[in-house]
Design brief:
alpha+beta; Alpha-Beta Plaits; five-stranded mixed beta sheet; 6 helices; 5 strands; 31% helix; globular
Length: 136
């Protein structure tokens, strides 16, 4: 099963915002909702295609209330999430997950990409991103 995790923006109750809107509520009504991280909503879908379709269906709400939409596709990795853009590129055959490189662990600081860092820390969430999302 492919998982989707929507991460709410700071100061926003993501679940509350989604369920206060009829279209989002209906789009999520058939799923068993989880909260794997603080202020997140996660669901399991049947495929990468259905995961990307769900995220696309919720786009209006994600732009307003979420910081990230992540996809966990077991055929790519059991533990590493994919950014929305990378999930779409893999679904469309525009990216090969085998061509990704070793992870860089980083947290943007004031919008800037920090120095190269290979240290894994407690509570690290690994997300594979496209080259353009990384800043290249």
């Amino acid at each position: 099963m492919t998982r989707v995790c929507l991460v709410g923006s700071e100061g926003v109750d993501l679940r509350g915002e989604l369920f206060s809107r009829e279209t989002a509520r209906e789009a999520l009504s058939t799923y068993d909702l989880r909260e794997p991280y603080r202020n997140s909503v996660a669901v399991e879908t049947i495929s990468l295609g259905s995961a990307v379709a769900l995220v696309n269906d919720l786009n209006w709400y994600l732009v307003r209330f979420a910081d990230d939409a992540l996809v966990l596709e077991p055929s790519v990795s059991e533990t590493e999430w994919l950014s929305r853009d990378l999930a779409e590129a893999i679904r469309d055959g525009e990216a090969d997950p085998e061509e990704t490189v070793e992870p860089m662990y980083l947290s943007p600081q004031d919008g800037e990409i920090p120095e190269y860092d290979l240290r894994d820390v407690a509570d690290t969430v690994v997300v594979r991103v496209t080259e353009s999302e990384f800043g290249g």
